[in-house]
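hey so i finally got around to running the thing on that chain from the lab meeting. sorry it took forever, my laptop kept dying and i had to restart like 3 times. anyway pasting the input first so we r on the same page abt which one it is
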Amino acid sequence: MKQITTKQAGFVAGGLTLTLVLGAGGYAVVQGRSAPEPSTTSASGFDPWWWSQRDRSGQSGQSDQSGASGQQQAQLPPWLQGSQSTQQQTPSTQPTADATATQERGVVVIETVLGYEGAQAAGTGVVLTSDGEVLTNNHVVEGSTQIKVTVAATGATYTATVVGTDATDDVAVLKLQGAHGLETAPLSDGTTPTVGSAVTAVGDAGGTGTLTAATGTVTALDQTITTQSELATVGESLHGLIEVSADVIPGDSGGPLLDAAGRVVGIDTAASSGSVDVTGYAIPLTTALTIAGSIESGTASSTVTIGYPAFLGVQIASQYTGVGGAVVAGAIDGTPAQAAGITAGSTITAVDGTPVTSASGLTAALAGHKPGDRVSITWDDASGQQHSATVTLAQGPAA
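ok and heres what got predicted. didnt touch it at all, straight out
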């Protein structure tokens, strides 16, 4: 539930599906993406993290209808701009309050700048080590180019870098620069909470910078949630989640789910909306720590990206198929693609001499590279003239 506070619609044009290509991982910016639906039949809609729009008063965000040229006025992600109507939501009856000093222990507020999207976002994190390793959700930092982290208990602020991310399981680890002597979060001993046990979700609800605590109970274990979308975009699924009745909302993501003893048992990550009773979801702490361990050891995999991906800086119109390459919708200012002369209407046909036949092929061709690598890019411009240039890949936003 990344809380997006401002947004320029720079990546959306017409009805195209545009993908910002990264060397590892990547993210799509889509116009017309439908609201997610629950994986089982339900009377209420399902809003995982970045789609969640509720605030504590129960008022959902309203989208700016100005389309691709407008500025996002509400707390909406870019692909919902002008594409989804919103409705009044009934406030949850679950109690919320400012977090206590005990509940703030080892909890940080995360603020990010999404430089290539003209946006800012907010979330929460849990301090794992005294020298500043922080556990959070991947979607809290996804697409970020700058990260600022504030320790809730002391107000100390640090610049953070991404140690690694796992977009599939929605986990990320950050490192606070120059941090030492931080109080760490009180972690549980690995015991899974039982159905009916009391829990409290702590986080930067609404992106205000002030931690709140929402109480509830565990309503189910080992839950799977799935989002569904239209166009060429597939949904996201998370498995093995703790389901709770606590009022989890945007900005809480990455924050701790505490048991009755005040120990962290999960990481807040998703919530439902559109009904009287809010249903929240958290990643079990044991799952999150296992993934964090892989990240901290520098072990990359099909799901784990270490550090930042390499970045060419092109937007790809991914629905064009059968054209013998990756069709470029635009090159971002200040990127290697723009410096090389790649423009909208170009078709990238090869990387280091290896043919590229599609948008996914371009992503795959760059996936084995790191920022600073030099690669040869071959493309045809809009008139069909072939070009080739060697570029130095930049550091991309967090994957």
